[in-house]
Amino acid sequence: MGSFVVSARKYRPKGFEEVVGQRHITTTLQNAIENEQLAQALLFCGPRGVGKTTCARIVAKMINGFDKESTENANPLNIYELDAASNNSVEDIRNLIDQVRYPPQFGKYKVYIIDEVHMLSNQAFNAFLKTLEEPPSYAIFILATTEKHKVIPTILSRCQIFDFNRIQNDDIADHLKLIAEKEGIEAEEEALHLISQKSDGALRDALSLFDLIVTYSHGNVLTYKTVIDNLHILDYDYYFSVTDKLLEGKHGEVLLIFDEILKKGFDGHNFINGLNEHFRNLLVCKDVATIQLLQLSENVKNKYLEQSKSASQSFLLSALNIGNQCDLQYKASKNQRLLVELALVKMSHLTDAIKFADGFSPESLKKKVL
């Protein structure tokens, strides 16, 4: 077996300029280091896979002035990483405090990175308080957590807090495109955007999915079809086709499309949620100011803009209401397929209902009287 390295490790940022989607964090840390105003206790909060531990390691290297060559030898003596999920007792913290007493043998600082710090017990937190508040001048503590609300207030008050954002889909797609170019992989824009959407703002998850689909593909070509097949995702075209039939009032054809989707092994609940998301995207396209909320490839975005012209706002709001009710009732339903089919039939009659209602509006009645 070869020495394959996953993309999340192979392309881990080595400097702040390589960190994706956290400009507000990297700029602040860069300025603090340059101006020698870095706090001795930092708390990095945010979702998984957004760069908390990576930024902590970069900080540790920068404040010690390590370059790429010296980092490999010096890191074990200057950078200590503790996983609080499995080392969360008072004894573990006492061992850490004992290490803090000794100054670094290389560089200026000893940096202690504690991952998942919210997993520490209350006793461990309390044992850590004094050292965290008044550490030696050569010690820097960087705490990382995905659940800030579980960290006790006395710890929060002693730390400088940095809140990491979920990474935008466009930023993830652009990063995947750069990696694909470096790896000599021909990737379609729609495929990269779909991977970024499935990652839910976590770059590490996106890179894992990217590796998986590249392994599944043939000839170093990453296509949209390959992604939807591998991740078992409904194609956009199904939702566009269903919406067209709903607008035309052809409930029979809509039910046939839904039957085809079920035969392919897709869940009815996922379908109705995906259709609600589709209606939401069409509604977003109705206003020029909100089009930026569509984090999709240009090709797919143009499809949404085109279909939104034929779908009235009244239809979309009513269809969303029906779809949302179906979503809420789905798990409790004894006949889930019938529930979705009934929702689709209701949606297919919305256009006629809206026309009928418009016929009795005050404006139309006034015209008839005149």
Descriptive notes:
The protein is an alpha/beta fold. It has 3 domains: 142 residues, 3-Layer(aba) Sandwich (Rossmann fold), CATH 3.40.50; 63 residues, Helicase, Ruva Protein, domain 3 (Orthogonal Bundle); 124 residues, Up-down Bundle (Zinc Finger, Delta Prime, domain 3), CATH 1.20.272.10. The chain has 19 helices and 7 strands. Strands 2-3-4-1-5 form a 5-stranded parallel sheet. Helix 2 runs parallel beside helix 3 and helix 14 runs antiparallel to helix 16.
Quick overview of this protein structure:
Mean pLDDT is 85; it is low at 69-74. This protein has 19 helices and 7 strands. It is α/β, with parallel strands linked by helices.
Q: What Rg, in angstroms, do the CA atoms define?
A: 27 Å
CATH architecture of the largest domain: 3-Layer(aba) Sandwich
DSSP strand content = 5-15%
Approximately how much helix is present in the residues?
A: 55-70%
CATH class of the largest domain: Alpha Beta
Unreliable residue runs: 69-74
Strand arrangement in the largest pleated sheet? 2-3-4-1-5
